[in-house]
């Protein structure tokens, strides 16, 4: 057993999400959103490097020493998988590990809206799950992919950096590819994917213009494509995709996106106040003909209104979802205010409304 595994066991026992190991500081874990120190000695650079190198593949160590940072996956059988990132900082080396549960939770177990399960049965199109880092995007996508794996007889191909949730083939054939290990880049994997007979493609992160372009094209040519972006709302997601392209290509990609887009799920995580744990609030946009028309005509500022009137399709705006959690007394008004979009709607719910300089 590697020396670091004891930290992973402690984090798992306490329900933590991330392990932080930093030269010049004691270890820490992120527990229900907050960083908490572990009662352990301060880590020095040489000692920490020995701990980290014990679990890192040789090729990843070489990349780390050449570039100063590297990503890879690490697994402890019967415990969990971990997304690892090594990086150099002022006092030496450091690392952050995100725990990826070995068991894939269903949408029902996660408390997700039923409409998300329906996304797994789409014949083609682009489905995006967005939100800030650590908002549970991978967990939501894993639940949707799991439904497809159980109910379809197709080929699912994932491209990730690194591989996170591992899906064993059930009704579907599932192939996982890791950027840097099985393929050089996301875009190279997507170009190859079109010759690998996939029905469903999961793109772990749509980072650059070429990857976004290939994902949109694949969704428009008969594939069901799932991807993630770091955007905070459905409308901003559409804008982000289009703004990546040069000005002279934006009208064309707007038209292609309007044809291929099927849904956008934008989510944020909250600390629960009714019990230990966290819960998720989601904005859900289903690409109805009316929504696609707004995308095509560059009227994304009207998407919010379309979602408010499209509840029968399973649509909801983020602030309504947050208000629903508040009504159930699952989250605090203060955190709801911090993470909502329309501050004026939530401000009267606060006992001591802050002076928010960003509203000035």
Structure, described:
The chain has about 350 residues and is an alpha/beta fold. The chain has 2 domains: about 5-100, Beta-Lactamase; about 105-345, P-loop containing nucleotide triphosphate hydrolases (Rossmann fold). It has helices at about 5-15, 45-55, 60-65, 105-110, 115-120, 135-150, 185-195, 210-220, 235-245, 250-260, 290-295, 305-310, 320-325, 335-340, 345; strands spanning about 20, 30, 35, 70-75, 80-90, 90-100, 125-130, 155-160, 175-180, 200-205, 225-230, 260-270, 280-285. The chain has a 7-stranded mixed β-sheet with strand order 9-8-10-11-7-12-13, with helices on both faces. Strands 3-2-1-6-5-4 form a 6-stranded antiparallel β-sheet, covered by helices on one side. A hairpin with a 2-residue loop joins strand 5 (about 80-90) and strand 6. Helix 7 (about 185-195) runs parallel beside helix 8, helix 8 crosses helix 10 (about 250-260) and helix 10 (about 250-260) packs antiparallel against helix 11. The protein is globular. It starts with a helix and ends in a 14-residue tail after the last helix.
């Amino acid at each position: 057993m590697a020396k670091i595994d004891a930290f992973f066991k402690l984090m798992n026992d306490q329900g933590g999400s991330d392990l932080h190991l930093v030269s010049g500081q004691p270890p820490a874990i992120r527990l229900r959103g907050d960083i908490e120190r572990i009662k352990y000695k301060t880590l020095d650079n040489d000692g920490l490097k020995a701990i980290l190198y014990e679990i890192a593949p040789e090729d990843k160590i070489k990349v780390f020493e050449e570039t100063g940072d590297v990503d890879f996956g690490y697994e402890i059988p019967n415990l969990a998988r971990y997304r690892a990132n090594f990086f150099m900082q002022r006092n030496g080396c450091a690392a952050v590990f995100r725990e990826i549960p070995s068991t894939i939770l269903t949408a029902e177990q996660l408390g997700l809206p039923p409409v998300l399960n329906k996304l797994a049965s789409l014949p083609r199109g682009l489905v995006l799950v967005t939100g800030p880092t650590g908002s549970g995007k991978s967990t939501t996508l894993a639940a949707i992919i799991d439904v497809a794996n159980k109910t379809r007889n197709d080929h699912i191909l994932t491209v990730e950096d690194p591989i996170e949730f591992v899906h064993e083939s059930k009704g579907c054939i599932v192939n996982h590819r890791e950027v840097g290990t099985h393929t050089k880049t996301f875009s190279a994997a997507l170009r190859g994917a079109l010759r690998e007979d996939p029905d469903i493609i999961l793109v772990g992160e749509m980072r650059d213009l070429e990857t976004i372009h290939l994902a949109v094209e694949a969704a428009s040519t008969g594939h069901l494509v799932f991807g993630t972006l770091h955007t905070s709302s459905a409308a901003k997601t559409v804008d982000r995709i289009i703004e990546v392209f040069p000005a002279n290509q934006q009208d064309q990609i707007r038209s292609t996106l309007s044809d291929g887009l099927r849904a956008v799920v934008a989510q944020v995580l909250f600390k629960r106040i009714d019990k230990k744990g966290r819960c998720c609030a989601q904005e859900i946009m289903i690409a109805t003909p009316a929504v696609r028309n707004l995308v095509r005509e560059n009227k994304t500022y009207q998407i919010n209104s379309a979602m408010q009137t499209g509840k029968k399709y399973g649509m909801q705006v983020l602030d309504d979802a947050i208000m629903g959690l508040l009504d159930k007394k699952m989250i605090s008004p203060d955190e709801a205010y911090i993470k909502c979009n329309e501050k004026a709607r939530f401000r009267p719910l606060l006992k001591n409304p802050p002076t928010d300089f960003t509203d000035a």
